[in-house]
Amino acid sequence: MKKQFIVAAALSAGAGIASAQNSVTAYGLIDAALSHTTNVNAAGDAVTRMPTVAGEHGSRLGFRGAEDLGNGTQAIFVLESGFGPDDGTSAQGKRLFGRQAYVGLAGRYGTLTFGRVYTMTNVAILKSDLLGTNLFGVGSLDPAIPNARSDNTVAYLGSWAGFTVGATYSTGRDTSAAGGPGGTNCAGEVPGNARACRETSVLLGYERGTSGITTSYDIMYGNAGAGNGLTSSALYDRHTTLNGYATLLGTRLGAGIIARSTRAATGPVDSNLYYLQASRFLTPALQFDAAAARLDVRHSPNDATMGVLRLTYFLSKRSAVYSAVGRMLNGGRSAVSLDAGGTVGAGLNQNGLMAGLKHFF
Q1: Which residues are CB-contacts of 58 (< 8 A; sequence separation ≥ 6)?
Q2: Cβ distance 85 to 59 under 8 Å?
């Protein structure tokens, strides 16, 4: 309680306001792993390394707070920093608070936030993508999925009678120039160009008991100098998803389809990503997960198919050890790495093994 008071006082000092109804919580996760993957280059070499991005989950340090405004309404904020446990550097395009940074209002009619937030693509697959940000996971086949966030965003999310609706609108989706999925140099907010670096996403879902289904639509535009070939505001990257989950006889099942259309300077690419996953506790402390996914690139032999098995043993409510094995089959000249953020020789298959430790605080 003393720690919470100190943090709350520090955050409110700039505004000169203190309230007994304020609550601020510091939280975090450190997740470090070792991985070994084969065929990381054309020569067929293997590599053992400590991944930067994640083992099972991305490491983070965050602060979240709420103030009761009365009538069931709260003022809320989240500041969440991602970092690499291998070297301690900031993730998500080297941002200080790259995972989330927003302020907003929450009440009976839903939540409205302003800042850097998750898009509806991320929200739509949370309950069906059971592997989540696992090093070997859906993010290996489409890096945009675990990095579905946008800067300069107004977001809304609300739920009633089992239905969930949501939307985001970004005036400049990515202000970082660090490169990679975490930063694509598309700040936007260009006078006279209403589409430059804009991103819009929407979601509709329905849940009942232990099952649910969601669909989402997300489109991001480019601009001069932007990464991933989106070098004009006429170019775009679009995701449409359909996802579902259910629990049957103690086993959680998740499945989905992610349709992607990219119109970039390098040419048009259309693909469908299919995934099917299952999760079950073998004992109260031992969880088993299995996943299969396929990336089907239309009018191309450059498809990829992935299989993953994972075991997680919970040492306590906060700490766990885990291991996973996976295999990626690359067709044609496909070069999709099993290890998210890793490499593979074009047209080569890849095997992988990893093990790690995570601790929540």
Answers
A1: 29, 31, 82, 91, 99, 133, 146
A2: yes
Residue 146 DSSP SS3: coil
Q: Which residue has the tokens 């579905």?
A: 148
344 dihedral zone (left: phi>0; alpha: psi -120 to 50; beta): beta
User: What amino acid occupies position 310?
Assistant: R
pLDDT in tens, 143-187: 999 999 999 999 999 999 999 999 999 999 999 999 878 899 999
Would the pLDDT of 6 be above 80?
Answer: no
49 three-class SS: strand
Q: CATH number for the domain including 246?
A: 2.40.160.10
Q: What is the mean pLDDT of residues 134-150?
A: 95
Number of domains making up the chain:
1
Name 155's Cβ contacts closer than 8 Å, sequence gap at least 6.
102, 104, 111, 112, 113, 114, 117, 166, 167, 168, 169
Integer Cα distance of 149 and 133 in angstroms: 14
Q: Is there a contact between 57 and 39 (Cβ–Cβ < 8 Å)?
A: no
- Say how far apart CA 147 and CA 144 lie, in whole Å: 5
Query: Which one-letter DSSP state was computed for residue 60?
Result: E
pTM confidence score: 0.90
DSSP string, 271-340: EEEEEEEEEEEEETTEEEEEEEEEEEETTSS--EEEEEEEEEEESSSSEEEEEEEEEEEE-TT----SST
pLDDT, tens only, 172-229: 999 999 987 889 999 999 999 999 999 999 999 999 999 999 999 999 999 999 999 9
What are the tens digits of pLDDT across the range 238-252?
A: 999 999 999 999 999
Question: Coil, strand or helix: which one is 167?
Answer: strand
Q: How far is CA 315 from the centre of its chain?
A: 26
Per the structure, the complete domain to which residue 239 belongs is given by 2-360
